[in-house]
């Protein structure tokens, strides 16, 4: 099976979508029955990595490397030339129509993976009328796909709410060989210039407003020493404080895993996450997680692997952090690791994604039972 992924959500410092696509590529490469092609916006006159095709695009300033697609017709031509057996579109915007059109021309299924809840964001920031327009567009666009995948129940419920009837829940996965407790670096605290007995909290992700990093900042300020927040990423809204340490975005998964495994717990305040891949990556590294009781994150954690707290409440987060360190962190981290290995390892998740592809292929080739068969000319 030849699988083509196309998305505009791909940049130098992009997070969960890019890690999903690269993990999928690596998993498919280890299985001879599959071939993978990644179609993404890229710079002109630049040779793409093997298995990747760049599309014409314009760089977006101050966007950590994101690019604006220059047109969908070229995307359709590239997909047609690649001749995949199934196409997955990673966004419903610039390339979605190209994916559907190419799939129709090739006679193959097209699936969409809903990585962002744009309808909820528009409703929150712009109001009901613009949100209704977005809902109509999404309902129309997603109806053209054979199936729409949603990583969490919260996204699935929103899709159903706006009338997308062909949606199904499909969680993302983690490479548990890369994100592993044995990545722990006992020298990290020394290199960071903090005491060996510091209680090291970690956050990794884009420093954007929707991540609510001010909540982490205030909670850590309230707690004071020996708590230290290690914030990994880039963006316009980094957390600040005397007990906050900033490290740049980590493009290498092994380097990110080493930082996660070397911390005591992951803290996350984003209440608009459609999934929360970094939560699973931290759990795979054997550390507990404290996150908001909202969004996709709330579906990944409970008292067995960490704590859920009231969103946007620094005092509640500070109390939860203090409470967590009264528990057995080793036991919580071990339970977190076991959960990810059991339910979210790519060897568990990817066969389910392949099953969606095969089901869509079957529906495309199955005979229609509600119409009579076409008879050849001159035969009864």
**In the CATH scheme, what's the topology name of the largest domain?**
Rossmann fold
Rg (CA only) = 22 Å
The helix content is 25-40%
- Second CATH tier, the architecture of the largest domain: 3-Layer(aba) Sandwich
- In total, how many beta strands? 15
Morphology: globular
Strand content: 15-25%
Unreliable segments (pLDDT under 50, ≥5 consecutive)? 367-380
The structural domain count equals: 2
Which structural class do you get from the secondary structure elements? alpha/beta
Q: Please, how many helices?
A: 13
Mean pLDDT equals 92
Q: How would you name the CATH homologous superfamily of the largest domain?
A: Glycogen Phosphorylase B
Order of strands across the main sheet: 3-2-1-6-7-8-9
CATH top level assignment of the largest domain: Alpha Beta
Report the major sheet. Answer: 7 strands, parallel
The arrangement of helices and strands along the chain is EHEEEEHEHEHHEHEHEHEEHEHEEHHH
Termini separation comes to 38 Å
Describe the structure.
With 380 residues, the protein is of the alpha/beta class. The protein has 2 domains: 2-173 and 345-365, Glycogen Phosphorylase B (Rossmann fold); 181-343, Glycogen Phosphorylase B (Rossmann fold), CATH 3.40.50. It is 39% helix and 17% strand. It is built from 13 helices and 15 strands. The chain has a 7-stranded parallel beta sheet, with helices on both faces. Helix 10 links the parallel strand 13 and strand 14 (289-292). Helix 10 packs across helix 12 (329-343). The chain is globular. Mean pLDDT is 92; it is low at 367-380.
